[in-house]
Design goal:
The protein is of the alpha/beta class and 311 residues long. It contains 13 helices and nine strands. The protein folds into two domains: 13-134 and 296-308, Rossmann fold; 137-292, Rossmann fold. Helices cover 44% and strands 13% of the residues. The protein has a five-stranded parallel β-sheet with strand order 7-6-5-8-9. A four-stranded parallel β-sheet has the order 2-1-3-4, sandwiched between helices. Helix 1 crosses helix 7 (135-149) and helix 1 packs across helix 13 (289-308). The longest helix has 20 residues, at 289-308. The N and C termini lie close together (11 Å). The protein binds phosphoric acid mono(formamide)ester and norvaline (NVA).
Length: 311
């Protein structure tokens, strides 16, 4: 296939080229739709160590179930189990886990923690969400968009809400894959300037345009509408204030009138119904939010097969 990801880390959506992302998405589709591919147990005998500093439903269960499906084993390390950086240094944790496990996944607060794990680990490290990026989510999102629209390049994706980790990875993913991306946030809650600048640079080479605005009418003509919680994990103290600031920045019946009628609705979940999305809109036939959740498993299975698998 010409793509070899063996031994690589995935910390950022920019870590992989468009060709590499496409290869993972192709494997994800194969693993999802072809039981015979899963029956080959491409992760047989492999162990995944999963470090969590934050709560999770999808990330934990999709990685763990995926490992079981493909013949491997996953170990859940709760925040209090290893107390990353307190009981033991990140460097030592990376070195020790590399002696047992074939791949490490970590969900952390500071992005520098996954970078440090990757610096010292001798096995691939996967970012299972940091305050800065959430690349596994975006692999699943791209798979979901492909299922609904049969292409990525040239589509217009519109993200409404907080310029957070998910927004950052979406911008990078869109730029890599030639999708147009508009991020609509309240003033002061835009994605990091460095991310916007970098996404624009990457997009210039793929025909993707990246825009950031506070104008909700920019959702006009969107093929994909995406939102996420207004207050991310670690921002709980700001949640009430953000509810007032973000009030208009949501996906609801009004947004659906602005976007294309057949716009795919995405949300990485967990959702706060009535805030960033209303329940009725989340249940429209256009909504692919539970396909997204399922595809976390297929996309990550594919990722792990490419990073550590036998094939
Ligand atoms: N979307 C996502 O990462 O969900 P969890 O926080 O439940 O893992
Ligand atoms: N932006 C959210 C995503 C949760 C999957 C958070 O970081 O909490």
């Amino acid at each position: 296939m010409g793509v070899n990801l063996k031994g690589r880390h995935l910390l950022s959506m920019l870590d992989f080229s468009a060709e590499e992302i496409s290869a993972v998405l192709k494997t994800a589709r194969n693993l999802k739709t072809n039981p015979a591919e899963r029956a080959k147990l491409p992760l047989k005998g492999k162990t995944l160590a999963m470090i969590f500093q934050k709560p999770s439903l999808r990330t934990r269960v999709s990685f763990e179930t995926g490992m079981t499906q493909l013949g491997g084993h996953a170990i859940y390390l709760a925040p209090t189990d290893i107390s990353l950086g307190k009981r033991e240094t990140t460097e030592d944790i990376a070195l020790v886990l590399s002696r047992y496990a074939d791949v490490i996944m970590a969900r952390v607060f500071g992005h520098e923690i996954v970078e440090e794990l990757a610096k010292y680990a001798t096995v691939p490290v996967i970012n299972g969400l940091s305050d800065f990026e959430h690349p596994c989510q975006i692999l699943a999102d791209l798979q979901t968009i492909l299922e609904r629209k049969e292409r990525l390049s040239g589509l217009k994706m519109c993200y409404i809400g907080d310029g957070n980790n998910v927004a950052h990875s979406l911008m990078y993913g869109a730029a890599r894959m030639g999708m147009h991306m508009t991020v609509i946030t309240p003033p002061g809650y835009e994605p990091k300037e460095s991310v916007t600048k970098k996404a624009k640079e990457v997009g210039a080479a793929t025909g993707s345009t990246i825009a950031v605005t506070s104008d909700l009418s920019a959702a006009n003509g969107a093929d994909v509408l995406y939102t996420d919680v207004w207050a991310s994990m670690g921002q709980e103290a700001e949640a009430e204030a953000r509810k007032r600031i973000f009030k208009k920045y949501r996906i609801d019946a009004e947004t659906m009138k602005i976007a294309n009628r057949d716009a795919v609705i995405l949300h990485c979940l967990p959702a706060h119904y009535g805030d960033e999305i209303d329940y009725a809109t989340s249940r429209l036939p256009n909504s692919a939010i539970f396909d997204q959740a399922e595809n976390r498993m297929h996309a990550q299975n594919a990722l792990m097969v490419h990073l550590v698998g036998a094939s």
